[in-house]
Amino acid sequence: LTPPKDRAEAGALRLDRLTKTFTSRSASVTAVDDVSLDVRPGEFITLLGPSGCGKTTTLRIVAGFETATSGGIQLDGAPIDRTPPQRRAMAMVFQSYALFPHLTVGENIAYGLKLRRRPHDDVRTAMQIALTSMNLVGLENRSPHELSGGQQQRVALARALIMQPKVLLFDEPLSNLDAKLRGAMRAEIRRIQRRLGITSLYVTHDQDEAMSMSDRIVVMNKGRVEQVAAPARIYFRPATIFVADFIGRANFIEVAPEDVGDGSAVVHALGNRLTVPAHPAVRAGGAGAYLMIRPETISLEPAAEGGIGTVLRSTFHGHSVDYEVETISGTLQVTEAGPDPARMIEAGTNVAVTLNPDRSYVLNGG
Ligand code: ATP
């Protein structure tokens, strides 16, 4: 398994205004609605969103298992809309692994190359490399059912990689694994993907998975793209309330129109006066803008007088404490990481609230 020789010409994927409408006698559903995306060679991009938002349908159109109603796909500048799936230089890894149960591990991995009638020696060499790099040496004569879930997923990945695709497509590949193994496999997939420099499109509804693996995340909602950006940007600079809410937890406080400027807002909130960056779509003096505050960017201090809120509840998680604080702007979610047991704040305590302007953001609601 070697990295592609010419990186510039290896796996630039373009989705151009893809739309897919499923029509039956009783209804019509637009599963993918005008989705455009440029994936750079070697980039790892995740399609993230709630169930039914169109992630899988988008991936299946790219793979060629589904035909777009309109729009097109290009690979390294050439349209591939009419290219059958097996000729697209792509390989897909599924949630269900989709291994052939009656074939051994080795036969499963070699299957695609044998189908293409590659010389026996070449197949054997490629398989040895695949077995070694996926940590499967010694398991080649086993049946898939004699493997653990993690091993089966590695076989599925080896089977995809041996074809030396330009693009790897992943459809929720880790959802059948337990939490610990899932974490290990995330790192392993990413390590191999980086080493080989294969362009990857990865579907998940797990925001933590998307955050920890991706170069960029595409957040989808109802068939449409809400935002495309690097994980930290998605988290701290969400384009929409939907993105802010879907990725982690967030507090929202409405901002008075007179406080909103172009590119930033001078916000008066919870006893703080802060200059907070704003999304480009937020217009000076515009109504319906909200201040977004992540719970772990807030700090609380017990206040004998002049407190701005009252702690309603505290929940201890070991690594953190969650507080619910009643304020005039509604209930505020606050998370304190690495809590000091001696300084935990009890319910009923009056508190002052400090916000962090750099890690807060102003965006349009609705
Ligand atoms: P999940 O995480 O649940 O798999 P998803 O984001 O991958 O969801 P899709 O599977 O792409 O979503 O489905 C998007 C929408 O299209 C849903 O409303 C779904 O019911 C509909 N849909 C998907 N495939 C078909 C089909 N073959 N015929 C009719 N409707 C479909």
Automatic annotation (TrEMBL):
Top-level taxon in the UniProt lineage: Bacteria
Pfam families referenced in this protein's UniProt entry, alphabetically: ABC_tran, TOBE_2
Name of the featured protein: Iron(III) transport system ATP-binding protein
SUPFAM superfamilies: MOP-like, P-loop containing nucleoside triphosphate hydrolases
GO molecular function, one term: ATP binding
Keyword line: ATP-binding, Nucleotide-binding, Transport
Keyword ATP-binding: yes
GO cellular component, one term: ATP-binding cassette (ABC) transporter complex
Boundaries of every ABC transporter domain copy: 13-247
